[in-house]
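Colleagues,

For the teaching module next term, I've prepared a clean inverse folding example: a structure given as tokens, and then the sequence designed for it. I'd like students to try predicting residues themselves before seeing the answer, so please don't circulate the second half yet.
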């Protein structure tokens, strides 16, 4: 049970941290407005030179392999809803790490997701 808990935490925390790092990386590169192949290659080159990209990629890799491992232990009908807690982690991370404004309605939605996860966990017993 402890191993599963650690794996779930890795999926949620490492995955979300990776997404936040990628968002920070892309904000430093800027919006993509030119979709011609050479322009996209230029954006790709700029993205690869940002350290946040590589940190995010490493964290997302850890989350992916943790997800594969937890799927060997639990049913997908349990794993997918529980990992939805990453929405709450992502919203909190966006607020703190990226300094995004989060509306009360969005916080209410996050709370609703958390309540749904609680029902899934209680239903497993």
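(Answer key — instructors only)
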């Amino acid at each position: 049970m402890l191993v599963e808990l650690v794996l779930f935490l890795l999926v949620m925390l490492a995955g979300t941290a990776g997404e936040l790092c990628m968002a920070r990386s892309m904000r430093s590169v800027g919006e993509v407005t030119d979709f011609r192949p050479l322009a996209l290659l230029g954006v790709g080159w700029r993205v690869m030179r940002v350290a946040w990209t590589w940190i995010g990629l490493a964290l997302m890799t850890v989350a992916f392999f943790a997800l594969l491992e937890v799927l060997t232990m639990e049913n997908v009908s349990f794993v997918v809803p529980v990992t939805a807690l990453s929405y709450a982690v992502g919203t909190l991370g966006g607020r703190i790490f990226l300094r995004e404004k989060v509306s009360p309605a969005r916080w209410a939605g996050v709370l609703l997701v958390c309540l749904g996860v609680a029902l899934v966990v209680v239903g497993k017993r």
